[in-house]
Amino acid sequence: MAKIYLDPGHGGTDPGASANGLQEKNVTLSLALKTRDILNRDYEGHTIRMSRTSDTTRSLAQRTNDANSWGADYFVSIHINAGGGTGYEDYIFNGSVSNNTVTYRDKLHAEIMKQVDFNNRGKKRANFHVLRESSMSAVLTENGFIDTVADANKLKSDAYLNRIALGHANGIAQALGLSRKSGGGSGQGYVEVITPSLWTYNTPNWDDRAVIVSQGEVFTVVGDRFQVGNGYMYQLKSGLYITASTQYVRYYTR
């Protein structure tokens, strides 16, 4: 059984980069949790461990020591870039690495680029701690620039984060040769109502109420969420509209 170690960058007292109303530690955690959930939903033959599953502080050494002692087969560290650029890039160690490390990264890179419209900044190498000190194949992904408005706006979209996570999950699965579960993984989006009752809308207008739906009901989503006034909506397959607020609905794909 393949052992996958997901490492959401930063966390706790280390926020990582911050700009445009975002903190890196929160975005990386969201991406890692989504990646975990997609892997578990769509694939079999693996187990997953994470360096953190909440807003906790973990040193770089704690992360690699944990992965090494667990005997992980693949270490995937998820980050958001900063410094005024735009786009996606990933890194493997700039020293000696196994053939698998290169192959795994190539497959991961390809699958992520299938899902996103970020500028492709390429496949790179660096002397990062998590790449150098991990005893298994390791990669670090940089998913857009938090201090570039266009990239940050994408990172604010839950639907876009789902696409990034799907690319990570499919890339990891391709790298490790995981088998897809029967019926898993169309990528279709859905929303589940998580509040006792909730209005839907005839048009993308908060004043144009349609019918009330109940907790536990699930609806098929058409396209990404979009801004309406100070909030966001999803269009449903039925033609109605619903809030995209995570306070009231849970978005997922399958």
Give keywords.
254 residues; alpha/beta; Aminopeptidase; SH3 type barrels; 2 domains; six-stranded mixed β-sheet; five-stranded antiparallel β-sheet; 6 helices; globular
Structure description:
The structure is a single chain. The chain is of the alpha/beta class and 254 residues long. The protein folds into two domains: 175 residues, Aminopeptidase, CATH 3.40.630.40; 65 residues, SH3 type barrels, CATH 2.30.30. Helix content is 30%, strand content 36%. The strands form five sheets. Strands 5-1-6-9-7-8 form a six-stranded mixed sheet, with helices on both faces. Strand 2 and strand 3 form a beta hairpin. Helix 3 runs antiparallel to helix 6. The protein is globular and about 60 Å long. The protein starts with a strand and ends with a strand. The model has no long low-confidence stretch (mean pLDDT 94). This is MurNAc-LAA domain-containing protein. One of its GO terms (molecular function) is N-acetylmuramoyl-L-alanine amidase activity. Keywords: Hydrolase. InterPro entries: DUF5776, MurNAc-LAA_cat, N-acetylmuramoyl_amidase_3. One of its GO terms (cellular component) is outer membrane-bounded periplasmic space.
Helix content: 25-40%
Mean pLDDT: 94
Shape: globular
SS element count, helices: 6
CATH class of the largest domain: Alpha Beta
Rg result: 19 Å
What's the order of the H and E elements?
EEEHEEHEEHEHEHHEEEEEEEE
Largest sheet: 6 strands, mixed
Map the helices and strands.
Blueprint: E1 2-8, E2 18-19, E3 22-23, H1 24-42, E4 43-44, E5 46-50, H2 60-70, E6 74-81, E7 88-93, H3 99-115, E8 120-126, H4 129-132, E9 137-145, H5 149-155, H6 158-176, E10 179-180, E11 189-193, E12 197-201, E13 209-214, E14 218-228, E15 231-236, E16 241-243, E17 249-253
Parallel strand pairs: 1-5, 1-6, 6-9, 7-8
Antiparallel strand pairs: 2-3, 4-10, 7-9, 11-14, 11-17, 12-13, 14-15, 15-16
Helix pairs in contact: 1-6, 3-6
Protein name: MurNAc-LAA domain-containing protein
Pfam family, one: Amidase_3
GO biological process, one term: peptidoglycan catabolic process
